[in-house]
Design goal:
Elements (H helix, E strand, L loop, with lengths): L3 E5 L10 E5 L4 H5 L2 H4 L1 H27 L7 H21 L4 H12 L7 H16 L4 H7 L2 H159 L14 H4 L3 H36 L1
Antiparallel strand pairs: 1-2
């Protein structure tokens, strides 16, 4: 088994710390393909920090050259060259100069989630630069690889890219400044109109608030009026219902009284009629008794005169004094007639009077 060490170290342009990854296996090529031994996540995390430093150095170089009277801008270049050489030599040494091992390993590292966005692209460009400088001869790669030229070429490409990005940012800033200037110019022209519009809107809001308040008051007044009308209608309906019930009750009481009076009058009339009928029968009985006595007296007279008594009958003419009804008979007949007449006249009059009384009370 072979033991191979991959050293990545770069902090602010100096080799300040080192992370060592042990790669074990039957041979170097196979060991780079074993994820557990490669630890690409740790390498990607370290390379992410290194790329951030490289970009900062490239931006310093670009900004330095952009100044009109710039001085020496090579300090950032020297720092990058040293860091870049350290990384390239570590990669080549760890792969024993095997170009395919570098290709596979860098592909795995560049796809790690720690390298996102521009860092993923920068990692792939760095890997392509290393592969472009390497040959198929492992020994030549280990001994005679032109690391300085590789890093110089990568530096040039990186600074050109950052310069283009800076130029785009400057153009964007200029456009933003121009837009801001135009906005300020138009803002000054629109200030008066804006103030007038705000004043008009304020007046409109006040007027609208007053209108809404008036609508609310009107709605409240309408609601109050409707509630009062409903209450009055309910009271009127209740009063009419109570009056109708009272009228019906009075009518029922009056009808009951009329009925009771009528019944009492009928019973009184019947009692009078019965009394008169009894007196009439008593008078008729007395009349018959008188007739019988008179017949007996006449018969007795006839016997006394020695004559045969005449046949008496109810058809026999009575004496003159017998034809006159006794006072009792006449009185009974008159009482009977008067009772019947009073009963026939009193009942309709009382009923009519009773029907008029509820209507007068309701009026």
């Amino acid at each position: 088994m072979k033991l191979c060490c991959f050293v990545l170290a770069a902090t602010h342009g100096m080799v300040g710390s080192a992370i060592v990854f042990q790669l074990r296996g039957s041979n170097v090529h196979d060991s780079w393909k074993v994820a557990g031994a490669m630890q690409p996540t740790v390498v990607a995390k370290t390379l992410s920090k290194v790329e951030s430093e490289w970009r900062s150095q490239a931006l310093q170089f670009v900004e330095c050259n952009a100044e009109p009277n710039h001085g020496h801008c090579e300090a950032a270049t020297g720092t990058f060259q040293k860091s870049c050489g350290t990384v390239v030599n570590a990669v080549v040494a760890a792969s024993s100069g095997d170009r395919e091992t570098v290709r596979d390993y860098m592909a795995v590292v560049c796809d790690e989630p720690q390298l996102k966005g521009w860092k993923k692209g920068r990692c792939r460009n760095f890997a392509q630069a290393i592969l472009g400088a390497m040959t198929t001869n492992d020994y030549e790669n280990r001994v005679h690889l032109y690391v300085t030229g590789l890093c110089t070429h990568f530096w040039t490409n990186m600074t050109n890219m950052e310069s283009a990005i800076v130029a785009q940012e400057h153009q964007l800033q200029e456009k933003q400044i121009e837009r801001a200037r135009l906005a300020a110019k138009t803002a000054a022209a629109d200030a008066t109109w804006k103030r007038a519009r705000e004043a008009a809107e304020a007046v409109h809001k006040v007027a609208e608030a007053r209108i809404q308040e008036a609508k609310k008051r009107r709605a409240a007044e309408v609601a109050r009026h409707e509630a009062e009308e409903k209450k009055k209608a309910a009271e009127r309906s209740s009063a009419l219902k109570a009056a109708a019930e009272l009228k019906a009750a009075k009518k029922a009481v009056a009808e009951k009284k009329v009925q009771e009076r009528s019944e009492a009058a009928r019973k009184a009339a019947e009692a009078q009629a019965a009394e008169a009928e009894a007196k009439l029968k008593e008078a008729e009985k007395q009349t018959q008794e008188i007739k019988q006595k008179m017949f007996e007296v006449e018969a007795a007279k006839a016997v006394a005169r020695g004559a045969h008594p005449a046949k008496a009958s109810y058809g026999t003419r009575l004496p003159a004094h017998s034809k006159t009804a006794s006072p009792t008979v006449k009185e009974a007949s008159n009482i009977s007639k008067i009772a019947l007449a009073n009963a026939s006249q009193t009942l309709p009059q009382k009923m009519a009077a009773t029907n008029k009384q509820p209507s007068k009370q309701m009026a």
